[in-house]
């Protein structure tokens, strides 16, 4: 491989590898396994940053399954607004801070979560709280 690629993409670990590595995030239809969109960059760029690049590819009337590392108010609020009737589902950490807004049934409720000060600094348009179904 070339030194130019190594400089552009870098390496995930500090150990020398014979080839540079990159990080990629893909948006795939689960039924057909068709790739709807993909974004890649240097391995120093995080998954949530790459996922934001896929906002234009979000289909209407869809449910996106996210891994836990994508749990970000900034990303998930933007994702919900990316197309009509698009929703997301992700596992949450046990330490999730929330207040119940409305209780629908056992293990089914509308919750309100605070947006972190760090997220508000990086995106001043974010609200102080956001809601999701838990």
Give a quick summary of the entry:
This is IS4 family transposase. The protein has 134 residues and is α+β, with helices and mostly antiparallel strands.
In helices, the fraction of residues equals 10-25%
- Tell me what portion of residues adopts beta-strand conformation: 25-35%
What separation lies between the terminal Cα atoms? 47 Å
Task: Decide which structural class fits the backbone.
Answer: alpha+beta
Secondary-structure element pattern, one letter each: HEEHEHEEEHE
The shape is globular
- Write down the domain tally: 2
Biggest sheet details: 3 strands, antiparallel
Question: Can you count the beta strands?
Answer: 7
Return the average pLDDT rounded to an integer. Answer: 91
| Integer-rounded radius of gyration | 18 Å
Runs in which pLDDT lies below 50 for 5 or more consecutive residues are none
Count of alpha/pi helices? 4
Order the strands across the largest sheet as they lie in space. 5-6-7
Structure keywords:
alpha+beta; two-stranded antiparallel ribbon; globular; three-stranded antiparallel beta sheet; 134 residues; 21% helix
How would you describe the overall organization of this protein?
- The protein is 21% helix and 31% strand.
- The N and C termini lie far apart (47 Å).
- The strands form three sheets. It has a three-stranded antiparallel β-sheet, with no helix packed on it.
- The mean pLDDT is 91.
- The protein is an alpha+beta fold and 134 residues long.
- The protein has helices at 3-9, 47-52, 73-81, 117-122, and strands at residues 22-28, 35-42, 62-65, 86-89, 99-105, 108-114, 129-133.
- The radius of gyration is 18 Å and the shape is globular.
- InterPro entries: Transposase_11.
- GO terms for molecular function: DNA binding; transposase activity.
- It holds the Pfam family DDE_Tnp_1.
């Amino acid at each position: 491989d070339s030194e130019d690629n190594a400089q552009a993409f870098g390496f995930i670990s500090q150990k020398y590898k014979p080839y540079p590595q990159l990080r990629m995030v893909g948006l795939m239809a689960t039924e057909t396994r068709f790739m709807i969109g993909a974004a890649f960059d240097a391995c120093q760029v995080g998954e949530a940053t790459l996922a934001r690049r896929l906002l234009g590819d979000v289909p209407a009337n869809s449910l996106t399954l996210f891994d836990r590392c994508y749990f970000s108010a900034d990303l998930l609020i933007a994702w919900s607004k990316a197309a009509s009737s698009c929703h997301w589902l992700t596992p949450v950490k046990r330490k999730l801070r929330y207040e119940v807004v409305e209780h629908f049934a056992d293990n089914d409720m509308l919750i309100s979560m605070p947006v972190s000060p760090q997220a508000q600094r990086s995106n001043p348009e974010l609200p102080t709280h956001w809601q999701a179904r838990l």
